[in-house]
């Protein structure tokens, strides 16, 4: 009987983890849709500044529970600086891309993040991957090229913003893996501070007046993103990463739905094909990593532009 109760408790924890992951993914997609709406009226730098201030509302209680030294006595300071630099690059370019492209198109580029990570981890983290996963990495790149539309449009600034931003996202994840001893609150706080500093520089000469309602929306952007991050972090404590990893692709589903609902955007056939190739390649990499048990699945909580 005791074994039965233990099994049921385990199932309940896994179910709770799955539900938290799904809710966290929805909040990230909602954050992205809000960001697209806000950058239509405000400069990217201004959005970054107020988003970072909004994040402080959620982060403050977390920071209060740890010593102040946890913020400045960090492991590998050089890697910490590189991480926040790439995270800020990722966030800035994401908002720059969604200002011009449909949300689902930009999210398709970012869904290739785990594929980039698989390739980068081989070289930077010494995580060996076999020929099957190398083939999946190659096919994932093919999916990105399909989504980019092989033409002169590939060189358009918005598409390049999305592509370079997704590489920044992947590099942030790789660096995160080298900073496992750093608390989540510390990582997110420095990311918010870097976003604030970067936003201040980017908003010089581009600061627009806002109403009280618009200010609340800009601050809510940070609250939603930080809450989503906390939900995903908690989900990983309740359910195995191998179970949760494939669920990150619900972000693409939500991006399509919210893009259609709020902006009237629907992906064209070429974007759907590219997304299918990218998702298929990513799921295969997850599967092989789980079978070989030599790498941990990449999740949005590792790092997120949300």
Using the alpha-carbon principal axes, give the shape.
globular
Give the biggest sheet. Answer: none
Main structural class? mainly alpha
Average pLDDT works out at 85
Distance between the termini: 44 Å
Instruction: Note poorly predicted spans.
Output: none
Report the radius of gyration as a whole number of Å: 19 Å
Quaternary status: single chain
| Percent in helix | over 70%
Instruction: Provide the number of structural domains.
Output: 1
Count of helices? 13
Order of helices and strands: HHHHHHHHHHHHH
The proportion of residues in beta strands is under 5%
Overall number of strands: 0
Describe the model.
With 306 residues, this protein is an all-alpha fold. The chain has one domain (2-302). Helix content is 75%, strand content 0%. The protein has 13 helices and no strands. Helix 1 runs parallel beside helix 12 and helix 6 (113-124) packs across helix 8.
What is the gist of this entry?
This protein is mainly alpha-helical and 306 residues long.
Salient structural properties:
306 residues, 13 helices, S-adenosylmethionine uptake transporter, EamA_dom, transmembrane, transmembrane helix
Secondary-structure blueprint:
Layout: H1 2-38, H2 44-64, H3 69-72, H4 77-98, H5 103-110, H6 113-124, H7 131-148, H8 157-176, H9 184-202, H10 212-238, H11 241-244, H12 250-263, H13 269-292
